[in-house]
# Entry
Amino acid sequence: MKGNEAIAEAAIRAGAEGYFCYPITPQSEVAEYLTKRMPEVGGVFLQGESEVAVGNMLFGAASTGKRVFTTSSSPGISLMQESISYMAGAHLPAVLVNIMRGGPGLGGILPAQSDYFQAVKGGGHGDYRLLVLAPSTVQEAVDLMMLSFDLADKYRNPVMMIGDGMIGQMMEAVEFPEEKEIKRNNPDESDWAVNGAKDRKPRIIKSLFLDPHQLEDNSWLLDDKYEQMKREEVRYELYKVNAKNKLLIVSYGTMARICQTVIDELESEGISVGLFRPITLYPYPMKELKKEAVKKNIKTVLTVEMSTAQMLEDVERSILGKKQIEFFGRTGGIVPTPDEVKSKVLELIKPKKKAKTSEKKKRGKNVK
Amino acid sequence: MKGNEAIAEAAIRAGAEGYFCYPITPQSEVAEYLTKRMPEVGGVFLQGESEVAVGNMLFGAASTGKRVFTTSSSPGISLMQESISYMAGAHLPAVLVNIMRGGPGLGGILPAQSDYFQAVKGGGHGDYRLLVLAPSTVQEAVDLMMLSFDLADKYRNPVMMIGDGMIGQMMEAVEFPEEKEIKRNNPDESDWAVNGAKDRKPRIIKSLFLDPHQLEDNSWLLDDKYEQMKREEVRYELYKVNAKNKLLIVSYGTMARICQTVIDELESEGISVGLFRPITLYPYPMKELKKEAVKKNIKTVLTVEMSTAQMLEDVERSILGKKQIEFFGRTGGIVPTPDEVKSKVLELIKPKKKAKTSEKKKRGKNVK
Amino acid sequence: MSSNSNVIFSRPEAMHDTVTHYCPGCTHGIIHRLVAEALDELGVRDKAVGVAPVGCSVLIYNYINCDFMEAPHGRAPALATGFKRMRPDMTVFTYQGDGDLASIGMGEIVHAANRGEKFTTIFVNNAIYGMTGGQMAPTTMPQQITTTSPKGRDVSQVGYPIRMAEILSALVTPSYIERVAVHTPQHILKAKKAIYKAFKYQVEGRCYSMVEVLSTCPTNWGYTPQEATKWLADNMVPYYELKCFKDPEKTEGF
Amino acid sequence: MSSNSNVIFSRPEAMHDTVTHYCPGCTHGIIHRLVAEALDELGVRDKAVGVAPVGCSVLIYNYINCDFMEAPHGRAPALATGFKRMRPDMTVFTYQGDGDLASIGMGEIVHAANRGEKFTTIFVNNAIYGMTGGQMAPTTMPQQITTTSPKGRDVSQVGYPIRMAEILSALVTPSYIERVAVHTPQHILKAKKAIYKAFKYQVEGRCYSMVEVLSTCPTNWGYTPQEATKWLADNMVPYYELKCFKDPEKTEGF
Amino acid sequence: MPGIRIDKNHCKGCELCIRACPQNIISMSKEITVRGYYFAQVHDPSRCIGCQLCAIVCPDVAIEVIAHGTSYALIEY
Amino acid sequence: MPGIRIDKNHCKGCELCIRACPQNIISMSKEITVRGYYFAQVHDPSRCIGCQLCAIVCPDVAIEVIAHGTSYALIEY
Amino acid sequence: MEQYEVTFAGFGGQGIMTAGQLLAYSGIKEGKQVAWMPSYGPEMRGGTAYCTVVISDKRIGSPVVTNPKCICVFNRPSFDKFGPIVKPGGLFIVNSSLINVVSDRKDFTQFLVPGNEMALMAGNAKATNVVILGAFVGASNVVKLETVTETLKEKLGKKKDMLELNLRVLKEGYDLALETLGQKDSV
Amino acid sequence: MEQYEVTFAGFGGQGIMTAGQLLAYSGIKEGKQVAWMPSYGPEMRGGTAYCTVVISDKRIGSPVVTNPKCICVFNRPSFDKFGPIVKPGGLFIVNSSLINVVSDRKDFTQFLVPGNEMALMAGNAKATNVVILGAFVGASNVVKLETVTETLKEKLGKKKDMLELNLRVLKEGYDLALETLGQKDSV
Ligand SMILES: Cc1ncc(C[n+]2csc(CCOP(=O)(O)OP(=O)(O)O)c2C)c(N)n1
Ligand SMILES: Cc1ncc(C[n+]2csc(CCOP(=O)(O)OP(=O)(O)O)c2C)c(N)n1
Ligand code: SF4
Ligand code: SF4
Ligand code: SF4
Ligand code: SF4
Ligand code: SF4
Ligand code: SF4
Ligand SMILES: [Mg+2]
Ligand SMILES: [Mg+2]
# Structure
């Protein structure tokens, strides 16, 4: 199944009842799949007039307490920032998927990971965070998509899954959980959703607090949720991490798969390298990464991203100067080949000249 | 002069010829001032239909090569993210001012600093950065506003000045540079602005690069500019920083002024504390902060923000675990009083119980 | 009063007994009452959800006694769409100012109306941005002075006021569109009927419905409440024609 | 050909000699030519700036030989506004698809027209999202099959197609609004006149001008170019009336 | 005998009811409410015809109208 | 004698000119261009009346029309 | 001069902001560092409005002051809200025309000024703010009476009647302070 | 089985994506790990289109492969673009109906298949992609012919004629491979 379709079907299996979208490459197949599939399960499919509208349709739909989601790509996600901030402020569960493409601006439509900051640090205004998940295979996209709905409900916070065109366009075998009856949220059981003030006081979904003390309380309440996420939701994967590793690669999403290929190749050449793959980008597995990075055998930590360096900052915050950190990145739709990552690794491992510090980030390609 | 008006007048003195806006508290005075003032200097004042439109009017106006700007507040800035990313991608100079209010969502209208991430890490999609300046007095708002236009032109990159409602509403004495003739950009002298393809090839202002190699080149070209900014534009101020300091406060904007009051009071009580005030938030004065923070006499670095902790991450990245970092913040429109900051400082200085690590960030107020 | 007296006019049930934050004489209050009465009369208060705008009426949920969502500025129709599509059994309305609906929210209102979303919009046109301190709105009258048109709205620079009822009526999709005003008791009674009808059509699942209500903003217009009603009658009513522009009873389909 | 032959029809000067990326038979190419001819005939190519949309015509700057800006999807009128206000001496036009102009860009186009911005819009209505692979647009015809309306556009669910020329004509601010088509030579010649007039009014500083051009998308409609022109004639023309809706010559002011 | 009750807590002294009353029996108090407003009062209750016009125009829903026996039918204006 | 020139580099073989020509003198080549398209050709140039209709409909501006002496006046259709 | 902070508080329409601004302009005129900081936001509609002026010879830190040296309250709600936070040893100026209670704090100077009455007697109740300002200047000596007079002249230059009345009540407030609290040195 | 990568390349309309998908489904049917990755983006209109299928018994790393083991090129531009990147020792399948050149690389197996002609002879030039697919299966043995046959039956179940024709050309391509390259063991 194509990644985009798998994501769509995963949402259906997770009990999603509403999908709102605006066309944008490279994820339009999600909509094209759901325009047929949603009606089959009695759900709502609606193409909105813009991503600004779609973000806010999601806001309205999420207020029903049912499971709802949208998918888009980089510029479209930028247009949703206000609504995302509102949904976070109003404690609404909703799932958003960003199939990232090259930016900034109109950029291109090929795979990139340059919306990391936007997703992880908060592209909208105010003290809020999204829970951010990054799958590296189509199967994982399915699993994380389903998890996203659970986490959105658990925290009543928007959850964003970020992938790139590769995840969206790639076809891999996927398994869905048994197709018994799809379980759905029952709005009548909700103690917060808007479903008619019958025999109870009205419920107000809002983020305005004119009293700054209340507004501050709301922000700290959000912060409590984020602290809870840090305790309970950190996810990551280790690949061939062991005491022989000379170098630890940190990479996420499809980029991490490419690094796996590199690691396999290097292994066959007798060079041991491990991979730390964050699955939750927020909360970031800081302690866990530090634990692996500080191990004696590791000389260097190499961050590999399809961007000019964004996750790098979280790697720095995790490792806190305890190890030399290097960066390798390609961006704008260029997917680094295993070969170039490999030669970067070899360059770092072979103790030729003095290696540079992370201050000078190393790029895949020089300009001019 | 009121801060908002001072900002408006500073732009005029800097040679700004176009201002585009949409009303939003607490900065509407800028528009109310300029609706009269702009025509006096033959400039353009236009109220747009939304911040989405305003961001894009700015885009079109900046393409003329003249100096143009907008001012808004948090939710309005969120709506400009797409256009900001486009302007950055297309190498356009433009100045944006965010007079921040409490968020997320509709939040409130009182002073806050909770859009730090949005401004500094990039709220839009793709590999781009804004040059971000944060004044702490009305005079500095004037100076930095004028500087913003210079820097926008120097780097052909959007520059954002962020302040809060205090800066906007406060009245202080200000001095403007001599009111000789206002110097303006001459579009005819520009080698990039759109001014009619007469006797030259057409110029295209764009951010689309279908060839990923070109798109990547554009991203690294942007990155080069950001590296240059790191070398040439870092600005910060030290206040009563000396070898007797037991603690170093890091704080920016109006919050830093409150910390100054605290420092003065503590000084009169015989307790020496210094202040590191970043003026450029991007590029962040990382080396400079580290240099001050690692000094032997400093036991603790205290980050004080009007947010639930955002700049803290850059402080962490600067200091890299070399010193204990503590956080104190109020948010949502609550301005910390000198007293509460002071007691936080005293709590940290007086070696009562074991201090907590920065992992557990300390908040101004506990919820519930 | 004696015990056999009966109350023939009182606060509708769907309204909280709260003093509003509106300025003295601001007709937002009247329009609130009319909405509450429609909910009462149709018996839908307990399955109603309002969408509050950003504007002076952002706190409408403190006054009308039903569930509410608070939308970003201008986006109420998008929230209402998302909600109503998921819960077609509920009664959904947006309450929006002219800055909210006709300026920043233009895209959302036109498209919601065009898709024929089955919700109701109460559009309060007071020809100004009330909440933010009296800036020019797209609906501001020619020559009207506001903080961002200190010499009066110059139509040669910023065009003529936008007439939303006319624009939404230009759409082919069936809908109910009427413009009313609330500056005299007579007009208020007509407004009441229009608002009732708008909700009724929704409850019947017929169509999108929008009532544009000409309203006063004494504070930002710089008039007393009495002067404001007169200014509305003299300036707004001639330009903003009061009538039913579209009614599914009369024009069904394309 | 002999030497005393003269060329009576050829590529306009304002057009680069480049093969376009458009699909065979896509009428975007014709419309490009008409724009280039207008620039040539008015002699404004060297003070013209186009605003490219996001849509199939995003690369228009590779074909028309003047300065260009590339706008975010739907926002071309805002860029044009910002630019033209700063440089009233230049000739500014936006070239926008129906997804771009009528869907995401609804707010910007209505407001630019309403403010009476002195630029020209060429609105290419092909009843579909071409570039993204054939999704439903607000202008998609009833029953038309697209990738997001696989059973045909269901007007009971998503309403009727939006007629932008009619909507913009509902505004009071004077403007020039005409709808034309390019499916036959006869229509193309009329379209040429309309586009010329639109630019002329701009150059004269008269008003905002918009020409809506009905165009084909053989690829996403699933027809041959020939079939596509027929489909346009049979389906679009009856719904999208071809006429001049508004002309400052005829209706001046309010 | 018909009559009205003005809730002085809700009244903001906008005077719209005064102009609306066909009997001219409403006028402003000399006192000020806690919110700082003069409020509306009926100075000649006996002449009230229960026409509800005052209540209809009151933006603050501060007025209740009471009728005895049959109520005055609200004609369409 | 009027005539047309079709730039086979620009032609994408859409066949719109074929239908437009009142003289029915345009048809498709059997060959394919480098871009993979069949292209338009005039199979009976002598009958061309220089009416320009083919050029007007060509989306790729692939056709030039040549007239000798006075040009055929383009009437309004 | 040490830093001096004064808050003016009342309801909207009582000229609170203007009183503060007049003081601020006067401070600037005397070459001092001045920060005027209004309250803004939800309070402004209906509730209390207030502004704070900080005047100093040196760079001013926080424009937000927890315990100002002086607070002038124009109505009852402000009296209740601000009475408790006057800095011990400070000054509490109460518009006794609208406030018929007194603070029972003993650690500051309480100064009752019948602002509305004085203004009304002078001809216009709207000048209450200038009465209180005069009283503040007299009581605090933070700026000179002459400076405020000049500021008023600049701001009201064109409106002769208004100016005259305002100058009159300014002086009356000032004199009342001297009478009540005695001549004071510059702070 | 070691990991195997194959790229199909040609212009849009030649059924490139379908060929890859049929292979991918067949791999999945045989319980293998499979990743099908299309090219997308600007190339899709006009230029070349290609997709890559990675088939393996183990977890698949990069779906983007620098040097695939096998590349099947359907037209001249693809020949030029992809010829140089076939993995040394790999397989280069060339649709000789539209490509009248041969690679001068000697470090891989070059296999010329007159795809269009074979398809046309079978009755439909559109089946070229299945001819090439058959040839690839015969040459590589990455999946069984029977599996692809099954996949085709599933996908074309309803269209009897189409199915029959496709099965025929699949077999013809397969046989040509065996003939030309000889019987091979499973890779
Ligand atoms: C995105 C955004 N932009 C601007 C604002 C500021 N704002 C608040 S209310 C308002 C307009 C109010 O005018 P209107 O909609 O006419 O309502 P009224 O107050 O007149 O009833 C604006 C611009 C905001 N909250 N959010
Ligand atoms: C913000 C944003 N949303 C979506 C897209 C994806 N997108 C590109 S073109 C397009 C629509 C094209 O349709 P139209 O405007 O009708 O032009 P056409 O291609 O039909 O000429 C869309 C939705 C985008 N680039 N940016
Ligand atoms: S500002 Fe205007 S609209 Fe708002 S409450 Fe006051 S009178 Fe009403
Ligand atoms: S997709 Fe449609 S609109 Fe786009 S170039 Fe092809 S035919 Fe033209
Ligand atoms: S009910 Fe009629 S008569 Fe009685 S007070 Fe009200 S308006 Fe006057
Ligand atoms: S109309 Fe209502 S609020 Fe106004 S004065 Fe009369 S009773 Fe009071
Ligand atoms: S000019 Fe007229 S007659 Fe000649 S080829 Fe073209 S269409 Fe035919
Ligand atoms: S109309 Fe133009 S592109 Fe089409 S076939 Fe004729 S010459 Fe070729
Ligand atoms: Mg309004
Ligand atoms: Mg289109």
User: Anything to note?
Assistant: The pocket of iron/sulfur cluster (ligand 4) is lined by residues D 22-23, 26, 28, 56, 126, 130-131, 217-220 (CB under 6 Å). Chain E has two helices and four strands. The longest strand of chain E covers residues 63-68.
